[in-house]
Amino acid sequence: MRAFSYLPHPSRVVFGAGALQHLGREIEALGARRALVLSTPGQAAQAERVAALLGERAAGVFARAVMHVPIESAQEARREAQRLGADCAVAIGGGSTTGLGKAIALESGLPILAIPTTYAGSEVTPIYGITEGGVKKTGRDAKVLPRTVIYDPELTLSLPVPLSVASGLNALAHAAEGLYAHDGNPITELMAQEGLRAMAAALPGLVADARDLAARGDALYGAWLCGIVLGQVSMGLHHKLCHTLGGSFNLPHAEVHAVVLPHALAYNAAAAPEAMARIAAALGEPEAAQAPQAVQRLAARLGAPLSLRAIGMPEGGLDRAADLAVQAAYPNPRPLERAALRALLQRAFDGAAPRG
Ligand SMILES: NC(=O)C1=CN([C@@H]2O[C@H](COP(=O)(O)OP(=O)(O)OC[C@H]3O[C@@H](n4cnc5c(N)ncnc54)[C@H](O)[C@@H]3O)[C@@H](O)[C@H]2O)C=CC1
Ligand SMILES: O=C(O)/C=C\C(=O)CC(=O)O
């Protein structure tokens, strides 16, 4: 057994269909008296339901979360939390809403109770992201890690199937890159492999029936494991490319992950054969070298977008994206070569088969 260190992030997790009923108990355990409930405009009704469950402990609802947390939205939410004298943020929604809670916590130290309704995984990471002047900056800070997470698969029944699929592939990406992370360890690898397996097994079920609660539960369980991996170890080329594409070209977060993952894995395949073997095994693919193809086949079978063209990437931006991808140093099993990355981006743009 190799030597390693592992420091679990301290969050309390309450999991199960109907788990939202425990909200009052969990808020009390946090010692919160005035919780500001956060959501996107589209989930305002869910936020109002949460506020009603909180009763006197609800300070108000701020239903204006926006993807990638623009600084203006963060500042508005921070002011609202202060104005209402909030002592806690309850975030119900996907990564955008959790991200808004994190932006508040980063400045004020307010505890967050997260109720995730997508598979993004932000609820179990100390990672925050804020977009200013068209540039998204991310960082890690223990202050932003939600103290409590309530996973209730019933709340994901309304997540549209295309978004469920893309978000599931976003989760797979955390686990896949976690398997070749330079700072990985046997525990994160176990979680990554089980997260991949659970998510890959659940997605076809919820595509067949969006209201299949068992499949929704398995997907949320997989998302949790994949999110822990994201929060524990360093991500590589794939996440870097997705942040560049999402932040600089305003592409939808989960869909970018869905398109790019097979291509980023193919780029790294020869440099990370053990990770490929684990990814392939988790997806039921007998040949380790076929892991990137297996991911793309799964995405195609689930009806996910397969090309950057289909999700709004301008072809004229591919050169700039390749330049940005090699600008900052970040850990990756294969060194970053601009020409090879430009070719990768072209294949992703065209929806071609992944190639190393
Ligand atoms: N800090 C971190 O660790 C992480 C941060 N993120 C960030 O999170 C953002 C993306 O989060 P996502 O979850 O992909 O999307 P999202 O939070 O933007 O949600 C996408 C859309 O789906 C709606 N939605 C969510 N759950 C729903 C449900 N159950 N029923 C109906 N509609 C629902 C939302 O209201 C929104 O309109 C990005 O900004 C990304 O960078 C993503 C992963 C990890
Ligand atoms: O950009 C952020 O807010 C932080 C991390 C992620 O989005 C992780 C991901 O790319 O899914």
Automatic annotation (TrEMBL):
Residues 165-349 form the Fe-containing alcohol dehydrogenase-like C-terminal domain. Belongs to the iron-containing alcohol dehydrogenase family. It is an enzyme of class 1 (oxidoreductase). SUPFAM superfamilies: Dehydroquinate synthase-like. Gene3D superfamilies: 3.40.50.1970, Dehydroquinate synthase-like - alpha domain. CDD domains: MAR. Keywords: Aromatic hydrocarbons catabolism, NAD, Oxidoreductase. This is maleylacetate reductase. One of its GO terms (biological process) is 3-chlorocatechol catabolic process. Pfam families: ADH_Fe_C, Fe-ADH. GO terms for molecular function: alcohol dehydrogenase (NAD+) activity; maleylacetate reductase activity; metal ion binding. It comes from Variovorax terrae. It catalyses: 3-oxoadipate + NADP(+) = maleylacetate + NADPH + H(+); 3-oxoadipate + NAD(+) = maleylacetate + NADH + H(+). Its EC number is 1.3.1.32. Residues 10-153 form the Alcohol dehydrogenase iron-type/glycerol dehydrogenase GldA domain. The keyword Ribonucleoprotein does not apply.
